[in-house]
Write a structure and sequence with these properties.
The complex is a heterodimer. Chain A has three helices and no strands. Chain A is mainly α. Chain A is flat, with a radius of gyration of 16 Å. The N and C termini of chain A lie far apart (54 Å). Chain B is mainly α. The longest helix of chain B is centred in the C-terminal third of the chain and has 32 residues. The termini of chain B are far apart. Classes of the chains: A mainly alpha, B mainly alpha. At the A-B interface, helix 1, helix 2 and helix 3 of A face helix 2, helix 4 and helix 7 of B.
């Protein structure tokens, strides 16, 4: 009984992740992508990463430092990728 | 008044929980993420120098299979979450069932990836075809090795769960294996849009 609400919540997170993946695929089918589209796809990846880190890995319960490290990682790596694409 | 304040401040200053699983696995996770992070950035800047080659080659990738594998990995991660939740209430049998589901999905990911590689190799594509394919094959096969490692780790956890080694109070190993598996998922979350989608 005790773990039911947690499980139910993780099911919602899973459904959101699947929906965001399908959205990414639909965007990928668009051959002529603009810079805004590229940034949107990276933003979706950022959201998915945060959902996995906080709710699947369970980092929302631990020190903010670990959440910060994962968020910082996505910001730095995603940011560098964005810079490379915007300046190409 | 004072009592209320004390209650509020007590609940706000509740100590954060420890990281799930062994601390060493988190150092390993950070190291792996760092290595992959550098490779992702190198790919992005290499692409900037050969836009046409990268864009044309990327369009030959099977985005459907890439998407399928993303859903497979996300779902396997969800199964692992359910497995950890099950052992936390001492339901080892349920925990094993969820992990076996995750393992089956892991095997499916590997099968889909090998199918995809076979498609490319049959078309005569190798590491030397061009820089895009070199990065695509290197990044995805390096990630595939981590999936394989994750399958072995989860297999060991299932073995120990079956032996009754984990309980509601002692399930460190389950959380350690789960954390590694989620990292494999986390890395794919960046790799998939980078190599298959954005151009």
């Amino acid at each position: 009984m005790m773990n039911k609400p947690i499980n139910h919540f993780s099911t919602r997170i899973w459904l959101i992740l699947v929906a965001l993946t399908i959205l990414t695929f639909c965007i990928g089918e668009e051959v002529a992508q603009g810079k805004a589209v590229m940034l949107s796809v990276l933003a979706i990846a950022f959201i998915k990463g945060q959902l996995i880190a906080n709710y699947f890995m369970g980092l929302r319960h631990v020190s903010w430092l670990w959440r910060g490290i994962i968020m910082g990682y996505f910001m730095v790596v995603g940011g560098m990728i964005a810079i490379a694409y915007l300046t190409a | 008044m004072n009592t209320n304040t004390a209650v509020v401040s007590d609940s706000e200053s509740l100590p954060a929980e420890d990281l799930p699983g062994d601390f060493a696995i988190w150092i390993f996770i950070l190291a792996e993420m760092l290595v992959f992070g550098v490779m992702f950035i190198v790919y992005a800047f290499a692409r900037a120098h050969q836009l046409e080659v990268f864009n044309a080659s990327q369009l030959t990738l099977n985005r459907g299979l890439g998407t399928l594998n993303t859903i497979i990995l996300i779902t396997s991660s969800y199964f692992v979450v359910r497995s950890v939740a099950a052992i936390k209430v001492n339901n080892a049998q349920q925990s094993v069932r969820w992990l076996l589901g995750a393992l089956a999905l892991g095997a499916m990911f590997i099968a889909v990836k090998l199918w995809e590689f076979n498609e490319k190799f049959s078309a005569g594509i190798t590491l030397e075809t061009n820089d895009f394919y070199m990065y695509y094959l290197t990044l995805t096969s390096f990630h595939l090795m981590h999936v394989l490692m994750g399958v072995i780790i989860l297999g060991c956890v299932v073995f120990k769960l079956n032996k009754g080694d984990y309980t509601a109070t002692e399930h460190f190993g389950v959380e350690t294996g789960a954390s590694f598996w989620h990292m494999v998922d986390l890395l794919w979350i960046v790799l998939f849009p980078l190599v298959y989608i954005i151009h």
